[in-house]
Please model this.
Amino acid sequence: MTVLQVRNLQFGYHQKPVLHDVSFSLPRGKLIGIVGPNGSGKSTLLKLLAGQLPLQQGEVDIQGQALASFSTKALARQLAFLPQRPVMAEGIRVEQLVQYGRHPHQGWFNQWSAEDARQVARARDIMQLEPLWQRIASSLSGGQAQRAWLGMILAQNTDLILLDEPTSALDIGLQTEVMESIRHITTENRTVLIVIHDLGMAARYCDELIALDEGRVAAMGPAREVITKALVDRLYNTNVDILAAPDDGAPVIVPRRRTS
Amino acid sequence: MNTSIPSGVWRLQLGKATVLLHRRTWLMTLLMLITLLLLFVLSVSIGSADMSMREVIATLGGQGSKLHEIMVYKIRLPRVTGVVVAGLAMGMAGCLIQTLVRNRLATPDMVGVNEGASLAVIVFALYLTLGSWPWWASPLGAALAAVALFVLCRRPGEQGYLFIIIGIAISELFNAVGEFAMSTQPLTHLGSVYLWTMGHFAHVSYQTTQPITLILLALCPLMALINRPLALLRFGDATARNLGVNVPLVQLGILGLAILVASLGTAIGGPVIFVAMAAPILASWLTRDNLAPIWLAALCGAVMLMGSDILVRVLAQPNEIPTGIMTRILGGFLLLFLLIKDRQWSD
Model:
């Protein structure tokens, strides 16, 4: 069974269409990247799948069940969503942030269980947050903060994880660090769907890519098959060269000039 | 490192139910309760006739003289209990709206909710003289101000400063209408209403405080229920929703509660600036993080209003000046401090 199935999704803000007839399904345990130019509908698509925007037309099934049939809390046990620029509450320690990830599993008379403790420890270890555990989260650097957020998302213990540009504000070293952490998540048989701008990073780390162009799926499939000169030239209106990385042949995109 | 329970909490286990109590939060709650009790006794002991704190305690325990009993129960206790209840309500309301808008400057006294409440009370008190104090009119006026605010500013969690600026405009407007209403009346007729608009607790009676206390008590379970989602709203709508909070429903609940509580707080002794803004700040400072619970903000509110009330009575003796004058002075300093601090952040 697929973790997520999307059929004929359409969406618009105030009559202005953003997505047209988007359909795909996600296999379990894979890292899938959504790529495409600015304004192609990537973030909107992710927000729709996360239940952050109301569905207008089309169907989204999570674990074979309609998205709309989940309560907010039940949905939060099925999928975790990290927005592009999450708001950090002031004065919160990293430990507290990660523990908030357990909220969908808790209730007024069930504020802390053995399972909560287990999942928080697991999230902390995967994201290597131990040295930061008692730090104030709003004082962390960009890469550290992103790891703390991912810790919260992991503590949620969901099969499906949606991340909106998790690496966009980071330098190349931190991007690699965060992408490796995300890769690690998929080894637990979880499915991760990310919006990502850097095509080189996307091709290197993602199993599959979905390329969006003006709200339509322009290409879909294994990352190295999707990233072709023809597609990149067309999507970004830019003439590019695509080279192969010396060690494993992963595509490296070198822009040459803007075509329109 | 041990994660078997979160650090800094006590875990209560009753059968299958587990409840976490944050150690520092509860110690501070206890501290504020003791402070409030001490101020309460001190406040009753202050007045034109001398009375020691020991005599106050004896009288409250039923061991006082006839004269002291009359002084305490008839004259001083109505004022002091009015101050406590109003302070509690203002602390609660401030905590709720500050969290909803995610801005410390957004308090009922800044965004027009209190002015709406006062206007309604003024109109009913001046034109529809019904004999008793029309405290029950205050939620109507506050709701009117809130509706105006939300029609003009749709998403309070996303546009903090716009919300506040529109709120200040609405509050000025309501203020002006209130002053106009008062200016149409002969000065002799105004007396207590005018003093009330400046935040005056000298004429508070049990007929006002009692029903308001009962309503606040009835709202307590709702406050407890909203405390956890309230903490998550501080991470913004998207993250709160991701963590399972039904954001629109919770926001509506918070807003409704805040308006009701703020207006009831205003109804007792009049609109008072400063307490609603400062109480949640003191509470989060005491707990060392910004997730101080509603009840602690409420206790801080009561302590602050009581402190201000004691201060004006001591400073102005033997005259009576409105408590709101003192809070306005303190509030002015606090507002300046916050604005300067905010400016440093944005640099």
User: Anything to note?
Assistant: Chain A is about 30% helix and 30% strand. The radius of gyration of chain A is 19 Å. Residues 137 and 145 of chain A are 7 Å apart (CA to CA).
